[in-house]
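1st attempt posting a full record on here, be nice pls
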Amino acid sequence: WHIYTVSVGPPALDNLLLSLQSVRRALTEFPQFRDLPTIITEWGCSSSPFTMHDRPYDAAFRVMAVHRFMDYNITLALPFALGAGPPNVHEGFQGSLAMFTKTTIPKPSFRAFELLHRMKGRRVACASSNDPIGGLACISADGTRAWIILYNLIEDYKHRAYDTSVTVKVRGLPEGIWRCEKTVIAPGTCDPYLLWQKMGKPKKLTAQQKAELLEASALPEPQPVAVHGGVIQVDMAGFSLMQLEFRKQ
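the predicted structure (as tokens):
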């Protein structure tokens, strides 16, 4: 089945959970189908063009959705869509559902999946005591690396994005010395749409403009994070992602 939080208009994030809950109820009612795979063949924030598809808002939404899919043991969920199709009439950002522009500039949503791809191993518990922060965590099979990916997301995309102070308490890592780094996707970071705006929203890109947009779309270099007694204190921008990577020394 398909899941979009809305067809036209502001996102309604609760619709994602309502859809997953309805499928769970159906499988409870008809247990003979419980062992069949559950496959979402399309999913996204909105099924119509939407400015936030081009911004870090959609990156945070994608990770939040993957979090929910894992909680509900979804077998496979195929994000829509990878590339922009023929309806995209120019080479800039048009709010399409695709994770790349027509000229293959990666959007923040694609970079979100790059961060998720880094997380290999066994999922471990990651609980948030306060909205709008949520997250996923895992540890590698050999116990020498671990990751937490946090999202800061509220429904009202028109609301002025505000920073949230986050305290991360890490428990249960194997004995040893651990180093932590963070990688961030946030408004103004890994956010090529803003550069395209500054360029005057060109509909035809020069080779130089495309190169600059590609550079602006790249994930930033990881930055070191201080850890004190298993506690990390970070500030997260509104509509953002932060991946914390732990490496055993």
